[in-house]
């Protein structure tokens, strides 16, 4: 079948699928009210970013239906590869050209042995194991994840940066949160100040604390996913993504994933004139799990990324990542009134600080300042807050 014939066939199966499932949607919902659909671009590549993600099946169907009816456009959604492997769901998703995305946490497996933090204060990224074999490359991959036991349906995880030995691993980022620290040390971290208590004995210590059981997830190469997205964008099509990464029924958004930024900037890097736009979409339900409930789907203004803005916003020529983080922290601390600096001014200040640092980095005063700022950053990281949340 020619590429034109395939596109025609894909469009036909998409419309038949959507028409069929529209009947189910109309039966379940009393009313679906779209707002500001005039903001949807009628031409050119579009990335629809929808949240909150209440249901992995209903949300994309409602968005597909609304965009098809009001803008005459079709969306290819990203779907978890785990869902794609299920017979009916995978078949249905293939009819609407869904793009499967492998998720490391969907492939996690129980690991042998236990892990703990030997020095949570001085070196929180070093993990030590008992009865482990971190040298098994098939299990412990660089870029893979160490996953702690789930508590309240939430499991802390972080990425493997380096395998040091059969019993030691270096993490890319330290585990965060009181629960994770307690799991890895057997101790509470006090009153939320990010430090282990010095005035009370730990619950378990020394030989008594053997660590916690854990899971390990492999590193997933997403190059095929991004290539499929870039192909769709090159063809002027639409991509749908739920940046929270999973469905939930919470009242607040989950932490957003970086995939959206990679897709948009990657497409622009490949072709600066591709004209991709990002359209935010709000999925609002009234009694979402109740039969004959109502829903409102609202579209925000399309976001375009200007070439010049994109370059100036991210270009600060620091010699390494740690220096860049140091410079950004100093720039924020240099602004004691907490006023939001215009973007060009913030970038220019970053550049001047980098130039000054590279010139005087051996000066004892600069070395001392660097140590203090990095210690400040580590404290913020342990507590789980950002610099702008600190009150003077």
From TrEMBL:
Query: By its UniProt entry, which InterPro entries does this protein fall under?
Result: GPAT/DAPAT, Plipid/glycerol_acylTrfase
| The organism's place on the tree of life at top rank | Eukaryota
Q: What are the start and end residues of every segment in region (Disordered)?
A: 188-210
**Residue ranges occupied by any Phospholipid/glycerol acyltransferase domain in the UniProt entry:** 47-286
* Pfam families, per the entry: Acyltransferase (PF01553)
Biological-process GO terms, alphabetical? phospholipid biosynthetic process
Q: What are this entry's molecular-function GO terms? A: glycerol-3-phosphate O-acyltransferase activity; glycerone-phosphate O-acyltransferase activity
PANTHER family per the UniProt record, alphabetical: GLYCEROL-3-PHOSPHATE O-ACYLTRANSFERASE 1
Descriptive protein name: Phospholipid/glycerol acyltransferase domain-containing protein
**What is the source species?**
Friedmanniomyces simplex
């Amino acid at each position: 079948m020619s590429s034109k014939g395939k596109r025609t066939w894909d469009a036909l199966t998409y419309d038949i699928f959507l028409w069929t499932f529209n009947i189910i949607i109309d039966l379940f919902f009393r009313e679906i009210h779209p707002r500001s659909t005039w903001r949807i671009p009628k031409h050119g590549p579009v990335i629809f970013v929808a949240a909150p993600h209440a249901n992995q099946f209903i949300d994309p169907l409602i968005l597909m239906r609304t965009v098809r009816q009001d803008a005459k456009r079709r969306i290819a959604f990203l779907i978890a590869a785990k869902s794609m492997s299920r017979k009916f769901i995978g078949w249905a998703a293939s009819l609407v050209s869904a793009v499967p995305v492998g998720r490391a946490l969907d492939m996690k497996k129980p690991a042998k042995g236990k892990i703990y933090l030997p020095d949570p204060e001085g070196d929180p990224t070093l993990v030590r194991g008992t009865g482990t074999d971190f040298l098994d490359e098939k299990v412990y991959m660089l870029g893979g994840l160490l996953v702690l036991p789930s508590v309240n349906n939430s499991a802390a995880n972080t990425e493997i940066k380096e395998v040091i030995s059969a019993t030691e691993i270096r993490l890319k980022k330290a585990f965060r949160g009181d629960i994770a620290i307690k799991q890895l040390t057997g101790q509470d971290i006090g009153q939320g100040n990010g430090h282990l208590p010095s005035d009370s004995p730990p619950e378990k210590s020394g030989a008594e604390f053997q660590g916690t059981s854990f899971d390990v997830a492999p590193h997933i190469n997403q190059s095929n996913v991004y290539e499929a997205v870039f192909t769709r964008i090159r063809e002027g099509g639409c991509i749908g993504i739920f940046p929270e990464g999973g469905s939930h029924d919470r009242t607040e958004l989950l932490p957003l994933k970086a995939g959206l930024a990679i897709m948009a900037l990657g497409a622009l890097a490949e072709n600066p004139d591709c004209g991709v736009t990002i359209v935010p979409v709000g999925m609002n339900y009234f009694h979402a799990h109740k039969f004959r409930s109502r829903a409102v789907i609202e579209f925000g203004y399309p976001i375009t990324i200007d070439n010049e803005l994109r370059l100036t916003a991210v270009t600060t020529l620091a010699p390494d990542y740690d220096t860049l983080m140091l410079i950004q922290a100093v720039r924020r601390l240099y602004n004691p009134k907490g006023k939001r600096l215009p973007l060009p001014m913030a970038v220019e200040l970053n550049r001047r600080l980098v130039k000054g640092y590279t010139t005087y980095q051996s000066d004892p005063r600069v070395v001392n300042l660097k140590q203090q700022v990095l210690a400040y950053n580590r404290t913020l990281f342990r507590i789980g807050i950002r610099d702008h949340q600190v009150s003077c």
